[in-house]
């Protein structure tokens, strides 16, 4: 497996070709014979670094990320991160769903890097590659230590998740929001149960995710919804969009931001294979829609965005986007009226 660049103490490479080969002794591989982890293999790694810079060519509106896991048991058939498993010589299909790399020293690394003189307190985004609250987090419990470090250094951060396990860390999130800017978004692209069961088989149901939004809001932490992905021809009917935005509004979301399905290499092949099995009549339509690359045509994206924004206005919530601020916690009573607040946007 080509994991050497992740290792805390990598072995010396012999040649350029095998420079990324990970030393077998540096990985602990485990399986657990429990229903929730049956068929899943965990590769425990002590990483050398954990706060990573986003490539300059990325479309993401943030510069730094923390990803304590690679691979994801959510098993979303469209997941754009599937390609990253190929960098480790791991399968991007079932392997991505069942071969999970765990950076067991992530909390201590975050604390160490935040305390470095070189670190300038930039915003850190989490859950933007694979979900940091996937099922593995229930066993390894890396996020409490990470959030505690961010809280202790008053470092701004955001979390995007489909996982209900985030509520386990509610107290820590509340504490962090008292000293720094915290942005939380939950991903709910649709509420169609039949579609959910086939396209996101390892995730909590959309309604349970909306319960997360309700709970966070009830505890004073405003939560937006990333309505992603909107899946062409399966989740984009006006009635489906209306039902989803209505449910998001009823959950108390502060914002809804639509994102149309994109199919990068790695994810594209796996998704099209799924489509051929479950909806073969749509294959030609997808080939035409995504003929120019990973993203749907601009006209289609704009149509979906307009429809969702109109529905959001109708139901009393507003969209967010890069550069559009939103508050995470109300200003404390002692805050000076009209004082300018530093605010964050996740996506």
- State the strand order across the main sheet: 3-4-7-8-9-10-11
- Overall shape: it is globular
Termini Cα gap: 33 Å
> Radius of gyration in whole Å, from Cα?
20 Å
Low-pLDDT ranges: 9-24, 321-347
Order of helices and strands: EEEEEHHEHEHHEHEHHEHEHHH
Number of strands: 11
Query: How many helices in DSSP terms?
Result: 12
| Percentage of residues in DSSP E strands | 5-15%
Task: Please describe what this structure looks like.
The chain is of the alpha/beta class and 347 residues long. It is built from 12 helices and 11 strands. The protein has helices spanning 82-86, 94-98, 106-114, 135-140, 143-152, 170-177, 193-199, 206-218, 238-250, 267-278, 283-289, 298-314; strands at residues 27-31, 41-45, 51-53, 64-66, 69-70, 99-103, 124-126, 157-161, 182-187, 223-230, 256-260. Helix 9 links the parallel strand 10 and strand 11. The protein is globular and about 50 Å long. Residues 9-24 and 321-347 have low confidence and may be disordered.
Notable features of this structure?
alpha/beta, 347 residues, globular, seven-stranded mixed sheet, 11 strands, four-stranded mixed sheet
Quick overview of this protein structure:
This protein is α/β, with parallel strands linked by helices and 347 residues long. It is built from twelve helices and eleven strands.
SSE layout and pairing:
Layout: E1 27-31, E2 41-45, E3 51-53, E4 64-66, E5 69-70, H1 82-86, H2 94-98, E6 99-103, H3 106-114, E7 124-126, H4 135-140, H5 143-152, E8 157-161, H6 170-177, E9 182-187, H7 193-199, H8 206-218, E10 223-230, H9 238-250, E11 256-260, H10 267-278, H11 283-289, H12 298-314
Parallel strand pairs: 2-6, 4-7, 7-8, 8-9, 9-10, 10-11
Antiparallel strand pairs: 1-2, 3-4, 5-6
């Amino acid at each position: 497996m080509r994991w050497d660049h992740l290792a805390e103490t990598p072995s010396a490479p012999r040649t350029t070709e095998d420079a990324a080969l990970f030393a077998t002794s540096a990985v602990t591989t485990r399986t657990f014979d429990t229903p929730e982890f049956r068929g899943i293999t965990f590769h425990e790694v002590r990483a050398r670094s954990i706060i990573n810079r986003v490539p300059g060519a990325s479309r993401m509106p943030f510069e730094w990320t923390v990803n304590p896991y690679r691979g994801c048991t959510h098993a979303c058939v469209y997941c754009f991160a599937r390609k990253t498993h190929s960098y480790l010589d791991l399968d991007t299909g079932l392997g991505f769903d069942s071969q999970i790399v765990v950076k067991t020293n992530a909390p201590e690394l975050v604390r160490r890097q935040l305390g470095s003189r070189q670190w300038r307190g930039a915003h850190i985004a989490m859950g933007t590659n694979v979900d940091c609250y996937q099922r593995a987090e229930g066993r390894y419990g890396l996020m409490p230590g990470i959030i505690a470090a961010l809280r202790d250094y008053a470092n701004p951060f955001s979390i995007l998740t489909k996982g209900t396990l985030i509520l386990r860390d509610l107290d820590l999130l509340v504490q962090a929001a008292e000293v720094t800017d915290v942005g939380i978004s939950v991903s709910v692209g649709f509420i169609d149960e039949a579609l959910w069961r086939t396209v996101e088989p390892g995730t909590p149901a959309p309604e349970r995710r909306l319960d997360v939004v309700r709970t966070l809001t009830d505890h004073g932490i405003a939560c937006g919804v990333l309505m992603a992905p909107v899946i062409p021809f399966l989740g984009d009917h006006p009635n489906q969009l209306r039902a989803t935005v209505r449910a998001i509004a009823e959950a108390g979301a502060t914002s809804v931001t639509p994102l149309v399905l994109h199919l990068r290499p790695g994810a594209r092949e796996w998704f099209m294979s799924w489509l051929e099995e479950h909806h073969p009549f749509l294959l030609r339509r997808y080939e035409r829609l995504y003929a120019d690359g990973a993203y749907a045509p601009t006209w289609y994206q704009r149509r979906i965005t307009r429809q969702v924004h109109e529905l959001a206005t109708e139901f009393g919530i507003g969209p967010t986007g890069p550069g559009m601020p939103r508050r995470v916690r109300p200003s404390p009573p002692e805050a000076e009226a009209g004082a300018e607040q530093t605010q964050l946007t996740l996506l």
